[in-house]
Write a structure and sequence with these properties.
mainly alpha; about 0% strand; globular
């Protein structure tokens, strides 16, 4: 389950108030990440059946947009954060298989016409795309503004450009708290644990007994990936 469902649950008015925390110029001009704690062979081991669109090079190309991601704190914390991100996006995309939302009946529902900028790409153009299923016109605008990319007019970039898709996932991970109280990045860096990242993505839809099976699915993915990275998963795995 993804951001698109969170926004449906909390209402468009609340979702429209999402604040972008990273200026577009800062993100767009960031230097490429020098290294990543996940190697290409480990990435391939994590996602043996992935869609080729979700490439390792696309991910590493995107890392420069948020240089603090998987690059803050100890080596253990860096690996735990990388694992937490990859576990959640694996859950969202069926193991990095799906690029776009599969329920096409939802596509016309993601245009908030109360926004002054409207839906210039069309009222059915803002369906879920990418590793954390970016959806709604106001989220395409917010992510695009932060990344220095015009996603409001060109939402298809998220399904056609691997690095752009990964950047939108990193935008949410690093700057948005969703229905939680902190960003997923903050949760991992500040020792709140994997469970808090689930809360930041889906809140009570899954947490606090909302859907224990979905929570366990995310935990299973996280434990598998931390095993591949050879790092302890830490505590507070559930929400």
């Amino acid at each position: 389950m993804s951001l698109r469902r969170i926004l449906t649950a909390v209402g468009m008015a609340a979702a429209a108030a999402i604040t972008v925390l990273v200026p577009a110029t800062t993100v767009a001009n960031a230097a490429p990440a020098a290294s990543f704690v996940v190697s290409v062979s480990q990435f391939n081991q994590m996602f043996p059946g992935r869609n080729s669109f979700y490439s390792y090079s696309g991910l590493t190309d995107a890392l420069g947009a948020y240089p603090g991601f998987a690059n803050s704190g100890s080596d253990t914390v860096k690996k735990q954060e990388a694992a937490a991100f990859l576990a959640n996006v694996s859950h969202e995309t069926g193991g990095l298989v799906y690029i776009v939302e599969q329920n096409t009946a939802n596509y016309p529902h993601y245009c908030d016409t109360s926004q002054s900028y409207g839906c210039p790409a069309g009222t059915a153009a803002y369906y879920g795309r990418g590793p954390i299923q970016l959806s709604w016109n106001f989220n395409y605008k917010a992510a695009g503004d932060a990344l220095g990319i015009d996603l409001l007019d060109n939402p298809n970039l998220v399904q056609n450009d691997s690095a752009v898709a990964w950047k939108t996932g990193l935008w949410y991970w690093n700057t948005q708290s969703g229905p939680g109280t902190m960003t997923p990045h903050g949760a991992m860096v500040n020792g709140r644990g994997f469970g808090e990242t689930i809360r930041s993505i889906n809140g009570s839809i899954e947490c606090n007994g909302g859907n224990p099976a979905q929570v366990q699915s995310r935990i299973d993915a996280y434990q598998k990936i931390t095993g591949i990275l050879g790092v302890d998963p830490g505590g507070n795995l559930s929400c």
